[in-house]
Amino acid sequence: MNGFSSKHIAVTAGAGSAALLVAALTFQSLGYAPCELCILQRWPHLVAAIIGGLIWFFGWKRWLAALGLIAALCATGLAIYHAGVELKLWLGPQHCSGGISGLATMSTQDLMAALEKAPVVRCDEVAWSLFGISMAGWNAILSAGLSALWLASVRGRRREAGLA
Questions:
Q1: d(CA 4, CA 13)
Q2: Exposure letters 6-16 (e unless 16+ CB within 10 A, then b)
Q3: Residue 54 pLDDT
Q4: Contact status, residue 10 vs residue 55, Cβ threshold 8 Å
Q5: Three-state SS letters, the chain
Q6: Which of 156, 136, 154 lies closest to 144 in space, CA to CA?
Q7: What CA–CA distance (Å, rounded) separates 47 from 111?
Q8: Distance from the Cα of residue 116 to its chain's centroid
Q9: 55-113 pLDDT, tens per residue?
Q10: Beta bridge partners of residue 130, listed in sequence order
């Protein structure tokens, strides 16, 4: 990252999160309805994008860059979790991964109520993929890259000041 200031790196990472949000909303506008985990993954990117904007506007502060790093790491973790659910490596939330608990003991009215509340989009099914990698998988890969940028921003100022 030589030649780039910590501020520039943080703003780039924030812009990357904003770009991922735009991509998610574009897919949604094209008819790919998001599941509950897809929506959950958007929140840390929103936070990281806002932090990148704050750093661009007010200037670099290590604590802001650290918050950006935390947001990006949360996005990475949620995306890995979602990709694992899609790959059937572990179970996802029962209410969006199919199955209704207590089915055998439910009354017809309770079953109908549970079905009406059930999300239309399942978390454990891949809606779209590229090169065999789902959107959640791509989000995990790209979020990990953004986490690396945030980490470089957090650590970079020390190097710039000759303290590392």
A1: 12
A2: bbbbbbbbbbb
A3: 96
A4: yes
A5: CCCCCHHHHHHHHHHHHHHHHHHHHHHHHCCCCCCHHHHHHHHHHHHHHHHHHHHHHHCCCHHHHHHHHHHHHHHHHHHHHHHHHHCCCCCCCCCCCCCCCCHHHCCHHHHHHHHHHCCCCCCCCCCCEECCEEHHHHHHHHHHHHHHHHHHHHHHHHHHCCCC
A6: 136
A7: 38
A8: 27
A9: 999 999 999 999 999 999 999 999 999 898 888 888 777 766 655 555 556 677 776 67
A10: 133
- 133-134 vs 129-130, strand pairing mode: antiparallel
pLDDT confidence bin for 119, thresholds 50/70/90: low
Q: Which residues pair with 134 in a beta bridge?
A: 129
Cβ–Cβ under 8 Å, residues 69 and 150: yes
Residue type, 20: L
Hey, what amino acid is at 49? Answer: A
- Please give the radius of gyration of the chain, using alpha carbons only, rounded to the nearest integer: 19
b/e per residue 23-33 (b: at least 16 CB within 10 A) = ebeebeeeeee
